[in-house]
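Researcher: Next sequence.
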Amino acid sequence: MANIGKPLADRVLLKLEDVSESKSSGGIILNTTTQTIQTAEVVEVSDGFIGNNGELIKLSVNRGDKVLINNGAGQKVKLDGVDYHLVRESEILMVV
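Model: Next structure:
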């Protein structure tokens, strides 16, 4: 992967997992774009942020982690022709 940079403060760069098209048993294509939760892979993590006491607080997610986020969380960004999401750590619901 090309060097795409490093997020700042409490931000995490994510690559959303592709949502495959779903069909019902009757062959009807189900709308998967209305899912409220999305799975993503952590691509890059900031070094942390400065807390109220002046100390660096590291984030609790690591590169390669699979996480869940709300659909629409963060900002969509395109780097080197690839779509990513830049989110704050607080927008990550859980590590799976």
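Model: The chain has one domain: 11-95. The beta strands are 11-16, 22-23, 29-30, 37-45, 49-50, 56-57, 66-70, 75-79, 82-88, 92-95.
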